[in-house]
Every structure is written in structure tokens, then in C-alpha cells.
Automatic annotation (TrEMBL):
InterPro entries reported in the protein's UniProt record: AstE_AspA_cat (IPR055438), N-alpha-Ac-DABA-like (IPR043795), N-alpha-Ac-DABA_deacetylase (IPR053138)
Domain Succinylglutamate desuccinylase/Aspartoacylase catalytic: 47-224
Keyword annotations of the record: Hydrolase, Metal-binding, Zinc
PANTHER family linked to this entry: BLL3975 PROTEIN (PTHR37326)
Pfam family, one: AstE_AspA_cat
UniProt xrefs under CDD domains: M14_ASTE_ASPA-like
Protein known as: Succinylglutamate desuccinylase/aspartoacylase family protein
Source domain of life: Bacteria
Cofactor: Zn(2+)
GO molecular function: hydrolase activity, acting on carbon-nitrogen (but not peptide) bonds, in linear amides; hydrolase activity, acting on ester bonds; metal ion binding
């Protein structure tokens, strides 16, 4: 039987109430209680239960900041249903500013977990039983890994009609179709009957203003889509679903000069970066083998041979790539989509390619 979103152990959330409380999920190495801060907000009318989770990887705090913002300044009121907000899932990693759990395991490869397993497996099981099973839908917020940034994109199993519905409603420009890694929160939640999407945006250890704005907008869009909130969705000027992404790697060690930024449309053969020695001599000119959009990139310019540098999302056809390029080129100045491209590149030195 599905657990009630109103009952959380000794805590009861009545219809029309918003409650802040902590959910005990285990013990730390010292034996102290490990508690997840949580907000449960119920409308007066019954309806769907949407969970918003963040920091399954403990250093990915862009989503944490967005959830805090929604708690402090909600841009909506609930017409029906329930909203569950958990700013940090991997609380033990969060307290150490690290991606992983103290036992060095990846929590996002450990769901649905087991009550008799490792520290990580036990936390995964507790979260799955106490949070995931209470939800009808979940939006799970992530960032790129260490020394990388991600242009905002949705990861979703678009073969699942409810997942595709959530993905489109959230309102990122790029949707990557796939079921996700085995043991990830979204894949195991979908398999358990809870449609779940992942948002990938920005960097670790930061709350980036435009990522926060996009996430607030996207969550509001999803709430409207589900009928939990009344209003009109704010969607991007273009949106593509891609089936494939590719990494472009350095062939030689050196120091990079970037010539493209996150969110930029690139063509096959276009120069992405120049790889030089420390004394400025060119090691290699790195070109895109693909038509696509820069979905992610390294922020560490010092690279070894084989290091991944640019993550390219590949449109299904040249026509789709052309439409995407034209739409990006026509973005309104000061729009959220335009501001994202500007701000995500502020810590990357992007320059024009020098003539050889």
C-alpha cells in the first residue's frame, strides 16, 4: 500500500498545511542521528504528489539553492495535491563537500538499496521507502561533476509517456532520452512506477543565479502541468530531444584555449579549442566531429591526453540542427536562455580562434 504524504512517523501534515521537519534516515560514524531536512506542503484539495530532490551527489548544490529559494519565496500557491521538497539527499556527503558517501560509494548507483547492506545501501533504502514511494512523480536536481559545467538539460526515459511529459514541461532546451544508469534514483523510481526526470545544470559547489532561475521556472512549469498549481507555463523558444551524445577528447596534453561556450551550437569541423604547451606553442587544434550543441564541458584547461573536453548533444538530422542553430542565434537579449549562456561562461576564458 502506498504510504500517505500526510503521515511521516510522528509528524502529520494536514490538508492546507506546510510543515518543515527532519526525517531520520540512519546513524553517522559517531552514532549521531542522520536527519534529512524536508518540507511537505499539502493543498486543501487532493491531487498528485510531486517530489523535488537534490544533492543525491553531496557536492551538487545548485538544486539545493533552488529548493531553498522555493521554500523561502514560493512563486505559486498549491491548488491541489502535495509538494515534497528535500534540498539534500546525501546529507553525509553534503557535510563533507563531496560527491560520495563516507564509505566511498555513489549513492546514485545504490537505489533502491537494502536495509541490511552498506551504509550507502541503507540510506538509499530509507530514502526509497520513505520518500520515493510517497511520490507520484519526482524531479531530481543535479549538476555536472567536479571541474565540469553542464548547460541545462533534462535526462528522461522518453519511451515512458509520463516522463516525456514532465521533461517537455520543465522547459530545458535539450532533452536527452535514456533510462539512466542502473541503481540511479530516476531509473529505479521509474521502474517502481514513479515517473522521474533528472535536471543537469551548472557546476558543483555553487548556487548559480541563472540556474536557480531556470530551476524555479521549470519546477513551476511541472506543477502547472500536473494541475497542482494553476497558471501558464513559460517554455523556451525551442526544444529538442536527442538520442545520442558524444564526448570530444584531447589527443595531447596541454593547456586549452576555449573557442566555444556551453549552450553554443557547433558544426562538424568547427574549432572548439586550441591545445598549447605552457610556452604557447600549438599542440593541436581540437575540432568538432559532429553537428550539435555544447551540452557540457571541462572547466579545467590543463588536460592530459584522452581527457574529455566537450560533451556534444547530437540532433537527429541536419535539418533539426539548422533549426536549432537559427533559434539560438535569434534568442532575445536578456532572456533567461541568453543569460544562461553568458553566465555559465563567466569562469571560462572563451576567445576567438587565432589565424594560423
Amino acid at each position: 500500500m502506498k504510504p500517505s504524504p500526510a503521515e511521516w512517523g510522528k509528524v502529520r501534515v494536514e490538508a492546507g498545511q506546510l510543515k518543515r521537519f527532519s526525517l531520520e534516515v540512519g546513524k553517522s560514524l559517531s552514532g549521531a542521528r542522520v536527519n534529512l531536512p524536508i518540507v511537505v506542503w499539502r493543498a486543501k484539495e487532493p491531487g498528485p504528489v510531486l517530489g523535488i530532490t537534490s544533492a543525491v551527489h553531496g557536492d551538487e548544490v545548485n538544486g539545493t539553492g533552488a529548493i531553498r529559494s522555493l521554500i523561502q519565496e514560493p512563486p505559486f500557491s498549491l491548488a491541489r495535491g502535495t509538494l515534497i521538497l528535500i534540498p539534500v539527499i546525501n546529507i553525509l556527503g553534503f557535510e563533507r563537500h563531496t560527491r560520495y558517501m563516507p564509505d566511498r560509494r555513489d549513492l546514485n548507483r545504490s537505489f533502491p538499496g537494502t536495509a541490511k547492506g552498506s551504509l550507502t545501501a541503507r540510506l538509499a533504502r530509507k530514502v526509497f521507502e520513505d520518500v520515493v514511494k510517497r511520490c507520484d512523480y519526482i524531479v531530481d536536481l543535479h549538476t555536472a561533476a567536479l571541474r565540469r559545467t553542464n548547460f541545462p538539460n533534462v535526462r528522461a526515459d522518453c519511451e515512458n509517456t509520463d516522463c516525456q511529459r514532465l521533461a517537455r514541461a520543465f522547459g530545458c532546451e535539450v532533452i536527452v532520452n535514456g533510462s539512466g544508469p542502473e541503481g540511479s534514483l530516476r531509473r529505479e523510481a521509474v521502474d517502481a512506477g514513479c515517473p522521474t526526470i533528472v535536471i543537469e545544470a551548472g557546476e558543483v559547489w555553487k548556487v548559480e543565479p541563472t540556474v536557480l532561475d531556470l530551476t524555479r521556472r521549470g519546477i513551476t512549469n511541472v506543477l502547472i502541468e500536473l494541475g497542482i498549481v494553476e497558471g501558464f507555463q513559460q517554455l523556451p523558444p525551442h526544444q529538442i530531444i536527442v538520442e545520442e551524445t558524444k564526448w570530444v577528447r584531447a589527443e595531447k596534453a596541454g593547456l586549452l584555449r576555449y573557442h566555444v561556450a556551453p549552450g553554443q551550437s557547433v558544426a562538424s569541423g568547427q574549432v572548439l579549442a586550441t591545445n598549447t604547451t605552457l610556452l604557447g606553442r600549438t599542440n593541436e587544434t581540437i575540432r568538432s566531429p559532429y553537428d550539435g550543441i555544447v551540452m557540457g564541458m571541462t572547466t579545467m584547461p590543463a588536460v592530459a591526453a584522452g581527457d574529455p573536453i566537450f560533451h556534444i548533444a547530437l540532433p537527429k538530422s541536419k535539418q533539426q540542427h539548422l533549426r536549432l542553430t537559427q533559434s539560438i542565434g535569434g534568442l532575445e537579449k536578456n532572456s533567461l536562455e541568453s543569460d544562461l549562456r553568458t553566465q555559465l561562461a563567466t569562469n571560462i576564458d572563451v576567445s576567438e580562434e587565432e589565424e594560423q
